[in-house]
Amino acid sequence: MSKKTYFFLILILGSLTALGPFSIDMYLPGFPAIAKDLHTTAAKVSLSLSGFFIGISLGQLLYGPLLDRFGRKKPLYIGLIVYILASAGCASTVSIDGLIFMRVVQAIGSCAAAVASVAMVRDLFPVKDNAKVFSLLLLVVGASPMIAPTVGGYVTAALGWQAVFVILMGMGVAILIAVFFWLPAKYKPDLSISLKPKPILLNFWQVLREPQFYTYAFTSAIAFSGLFAYVSGSPILFMEVFHTDEKVYGWIFAFLSVGFIGSSQINTLLLRRYKSEQIVNVALICQSIVGLTFLAVALAGWLTLSTTIIFLFLYLCCIGYTNPNAAALSLAPFAKNAGSASALMGALQMGMGTLISVFISMFEVPSAIPMVIGMAGAATLALLVLLVGRRTIRTQVEVQQDADAALLH
């Protein structure tokens, strides 16, 4: 493979990977403007974010079997076309209910891009290069929260919030053209793969019964939902409580993303000396301490803009350590069902994120308290699940060892 071909493949796959994060983050600075134009509240606008999370949760489970049965490009074409039409619908909507519905549809379309990009790495590159390619795609995902809200803040201030969705629609069109003309299709469709609900659900149930999976998958999903609480609550917090404008909010969001991205990169260095179990344990304890301290300060009324940014930065750093290690541990027991396990884990994360974002949107009065309660509660509950789940894993190991010893005897 030539360097030019390699570059173009990475560029297209990176664009597919970035579509979802851009769709989540780019319109966040427009929450107050959307609320004003659609005659509603910023809290109600945040339900459109919850709707997007619901769409991604459904898409995680939908596209895996479709991409295996019909090949990569046909489901991807359909998903991108759905995304483009839904983006146009978001830009032209005149009601908050219409925006929420269109965001659900937009998410289902964008999910095709995310799932297909992961699958096509294995199709298009040698196995020995996969880790390198995934690292490059992860950098794209990590850069998106730094770029998208900053750009969205300037676009909203200059052209209005509708222009953000017009830009997202243009991104979808450009990616669709690139996929059609320059992305090769090397995977052959497997018509033996069943799309009937029963075999798919039985496969997921088999995965979910594994103690190591449900312990670390739920730990990861609950802890990661603290990030969703931050994403859902931060527009209200910064622009309505602290009265920053769209541009300043975009820069704050970009700065805070550095904590999450930086810690996830440092995590790779820590793994040379420590096990994932050790890192998860320490990071989750720290995340709980930061979350509970953040809540105590908020309830006491001592929060300022600077202290809020410090607490959020520390909390996001903890997630950067917790999430990748918990995710790796949850997938470790699987070889045959790794795809199903990955899809189920992604659906759990988005499902938890949806619940916590809906919780925050229930509060009509602008306040930091709902977001901080969500963040503190997520970290504390995740730690509890980890402690209980580890006991179950140890019991399973001991039973297996006793059974092996009896068999040998």
Automatic annotation (TrEMBL):
<feature type="transmembrane region" description="Helical">
    <location>
        <begin position="251"/>
        <end position="270"/>
    </location>
</feature>
<feature type="transmembrane region" description="Helical">
    <location>
        <begin position="100"/>
        <end position="121"/>
    </location>
</feature>
<dbReference type="Pfam" id="PF07690">
    <property type="entry name" value="MFS_1"/>
</dbReference>
<feature type="transmembrane region" description="Helical">
    <location>
        <begin position="161"/>
        <end position="183"/>
    </location>
</feature>
<protein>
    <submittedName>
        <fullName>Multidrug effflux MFS transporter</fullName>
    </submittedName>
</protein>
<keyword id="KW-0813">Transport</keyword>
<feature type="transmembrane region" description="Helical">
    <location>
        <begin position="343"/>
        <end position="363"/>
    </location>
</feature>
<feature type="transmembrane region" description="Helical">
    <location>
        <begin position="213"/>
        <end position="231"/>
    </location>
</feature>
<feature type="transmembrane region" description="Helical">
    <location>
        <begin position="369"/>
        <end position="388"/>
    </location>
</feature>
<dbReference type="GO" id="GO:1990961">
    <property type="term" value="P:xenobiotic detoxification by transmembrane export across the plasma membrane"/>
</dbReference>
<comment type="similarity">
    <text>Belongs to the major facilitator superfamily. Bcr/CmlA family.</text>
</comment>
<dbReference type="GO" id="GO:0015385">
    <property type="term" value="F:sodium:proton antiporter activity"/>
</dbReference>
<keyword id="KW-0472">Membrane</keyword>
<dbReference type="InterPro" id="IPR011701">
    <property type="entry name" value="MFS"/>
</dbReference>
<dbReference type="InterPro" id="IPR036259">
    <property type="entry name" value="MFS_trans_sf"/>
</dbReference>
<feature type="transmembrane region" description="Helical">
    <location>
        <begin position="76"/>
        <end position="94"/>
    </location>
</feature>
<keyword id="KW-0812">Transmembrane</keyword>
<dbReference type="GO" id="GO:0005886">
    <property type="term" value="C:plasma membrane"/>
</dbReference>
<dbReference type="InterPro" id="IPR020846">
    <property type="entry name" value="MFS_dom"/>
</dbReference>
<keyword id="KW-1133">Transmembrane helix</keyword>
<feature type="transmembrane region" description="Helical">
    <location>
        <begin position="282"/>
        <end position="303"/>
    </location>
</feature>
<feature type="transmembrane region" description="Helical">
    <location>
        <begin position="309"/>
        <end position="331"/>
    </location>
</feature>
<dbReference type="GO" id="GO:0042910">
    <property type="term" value="F:xenobiotic transmembrane transporter activity"/>
</dbReference>
<feature type="transmembrane region" description="Helical">
    <location>
        <begin position="45"/>
        <end position="64"/>
    </location>
</feature>
<feature type="domain" description="Major facilitator superfamily (MFS) profile">
    <location>
        <begin position="9"/>
        <end position="394"/>
    </location>
</feature>
<keyword id="KW-1003">Cell membrane</keyword>
<feature type="transmembrane region" description="Helical">
    <location>
        <begin position="133"/>
        <end position="155"/>
    </location>
</feature>
<dbReference type="InterPro" id="IPR004812">
    <property type="entry name" value="Efflux_drug-R_Bcr/CmlA"/>
</dbReference>
